[in-house]
Each structure stands twice: as structure tokens, then as C-alpha cells.
Specification:
By secondary structure, this protein is an alpha/beta fold. It is built from nine helices and seven strands. The chain has a single domain, classed as NAD(P)-binding Rossmann-like Domain (Rossmann fold, 3-Layer(aba) Sandwich), CATH 3.40.50. The longest helix is centred in the middle third of the chain and has 22 residues. Bound molecules: nicotinamide-adenine-dinucleotide.
């Protein structure tokens, strides 16, 4: 088992990438706190883990709310005794629009969840983490490319890559590692909107492997970064994109 006796928080654990990762973490021996605004799906995630003989609890958390995030961390420690892994993964996407048509409300909402949400996770978890802990933040290929028509999403994910590097530098001496993953197009609830558009066949195969990614393939990469197998890697952003940027 690669995470034996570890304690992990997975934000966005009611969604597809978060759920696949929470389930995988538990199979590898971790106790998992699933944190999300969606209680119904979050309870399903923890039931899947419990049915497999693993340990998991759910806490309703809005990652953009500081009180919620602080409580998420303290409740995890109260429940499982410590905190070794944080997967800062909750996020939202937006409909395609050119910058002049993006409302300030939309910009603010995306930044609050995707960017401030990651900051708050780091802010409250790091002081409670022991040496050897690992944090993984979910960025996106969009945050590297600068995706047209998705300005707020792209900007929010770029900031995740930047704060990952800052947090890695600040916490290296304590042996707390901080990395990011940058998924390409992954078959999750988030891409449902695209599936109804004419662009979908092109979007879903716009990578060297010519297919869409699976949540479990992202979970494998997160597991590597969470485990001691990546013990000399910090401040890195790992692309999980089937070669999207290599076309
Ligand atoms: N699916 C893709 O193609 C893709 C590509 C790159 C990056 N990502 C990123 O992966 C992460 C996971 O997304 P997914 O693809 O599994 O989509 P998803 O919609 O299945 O999961 C997202 C989860 O985040 C939760 N969430 C949204 N706002 C929240 C908030 N304020 N507080 C707490 N939870 C909140 C949702 O309830 C949902 O469970 C996101 O950060 C997303 O931006 C996805």
C-alpha cells in the first residue's frame, strides 16, 4: 500500500476526478475526508470507499469560504488524528465568451473558487501538516496555454501553478512538498456542456493519444505526487493531458 496510515483531504471529492482519487487513496491505505459543496454525491463517494473496506467521511465545504476551509482541516484532524495529504481539487468552469463579454461576477466567482479556494486550502492546512506531507493542487492545461474564450478559467488555473511554486519554496525546509497537476480534457461532469457542441469530436481528441482522458488516469498521477515515490519532486506541475501541448 502506497499511502498506508496516511490521512488525506480531497476537495471536489463529489466530482469525477476527486471521487476517482479519493477511492484510489483509500485503496492505497489512506483515511479520506471528502470535502465538497455537493453533499449527495459526496456521501456516495464515501459509501463507495466504505463498501470497499476503507475509511472516509464527508464534510460540506465551500472552498471559497475561509471558515469552511478552516473547519475542513480541523474536523479532519479531530476525526482521523492528523493530516498528511491535501488534494486541492474543487473547481468550476465557465461558458465560452470573449473578454469584453465576461461579467465581473463570473470573473470573481471563478477566481474565488479555483484560485482563492486553493490559497485557503494551503493557508489552513500547511500549519497542521507534519514533515513528509504532500499537497497537490489541480491546475489545467488551460492555465499553461492561455485558452481563448475561457479567460477567467485560464487565469485562475495559471495562478494555481504560480502559488504551487511559491508554496513549494516556502515549505521545502519543513519537507512539505507542493505540486500541481494540469489535466487536459478529461471525461467528467465538467465537460458535459462541450459534448453537446459540434466542437466535441475535435476537442476530445486534441492530443497525441487521440482520445479523451479518464478520471482514474488523473488519480494515478495524483497518487504518485501524494506518495513518497515522488519524494524529491516539489513545485512541479505534472501534465496529465495525453500530449495536448506536444501536438
Ligand atoms: N474535466 C476536465 O477536462 C478538466 C481539465 C482540467 C482541469 N480540470 C479540473 O479538475 C478539477 C475537478 O473537476 P472535474 O473535471 O472532476 O469536474 P466535476 O464537475 O466532476 O468536479 C468538480 C467538483 O468541484 C465541486 N465544487 C465546485 N465548486 C465548489 C466549491 N465552491 N467548494 C467545494 N466544491 C466545489 C463540485 O461540486 C464538483 O463535485 C477542477 O478543478 C477542474 O477545473 C478538469
Amino acid at each position: 500500500m502506497r499511502l498506508k496510515d496516511k490521512v488525506a483531504i480531497v476537495t471536489g471529492g463529489s466530482g469525477d476526478i476527486g471521487r476517482a482519487t479519493a477511492v484510489r487513496f483509500a485503496i492505497e491505505g489512506a483515511s479520506v475526508m471528502v470535502a465538497d459543496i455537493n453533499e449527495e454525491s459526496g456521501l456516495e463517494t464515501i459509501q463507495m470507499i466504505k463498501d470497499d473496506g476503507g475509511k472516509a467521511e464527508f464534510i460540506r465545504t465551500d472552498v471559497s469560504n475561509p471558515q469552511d476551509v478552516e473547519k475542513m482541516v480541523t474536523s479532519t484532524i479531530d476525526t482521523f488524528g492528523k493530516l498528511n495529504i491535501l488534494f486541492n481539487n474543487a473547481g468550476v468552469s465557465i461558458e465560452e465568451k470573449k473578454i469584453p463579454d465576461v461579467s465581473l461576477d463570473t470573473w470573481q466567482k471563478v477566481m474565488d473558487i479555483n484560485s482563492t479556494g486553493v490559497f485557503l486550502g494551503l493557508k489552513y492546512a500547511i500549519p497542521k501538516m507534519e514533515a513528509g506531507s504532500s499537497i497537490i493542487n489541480t491546475a489545467s492545461v488551460a492555465g499553461i496555454k492561455g485558452q481563448k474564450l475561457l479567460s477567467a478559467y485560464t487565469a485562475s488555473k495559471s495562478s494555481v501553478i504560480a502559488i504551487t511554486k511559491a508554496a513549494a519554496s516556502e515549505n521545502g525546509r519543513k519537507n512539505i512538498r507542493v505540486n500541481a497537476i494540469a489535466p487536459g480534457v478529461i471525461n467528467t461532469e465538467m465537460v458535459t456542456f462541450w459534448k453537446e457542441t459540434k466542437k466535441w469530436p475535435a476537442i476530445s481528441t486534441a492530443n497525441a493519444l487521440k482520445r479523451i482522458g479518464k478520471p482514474e488516469e488523473v488519480a494515478n498521477a495524483v497518487l504518485f505526487l501524494a506518495s513518497d515515490e515522488s519524494s524529491f519532486i516539489t513545485g512541479e506541475t505534472l501534465l496529465v493531458d495525453g500530449g495536448t501541448l506536444n501536438l
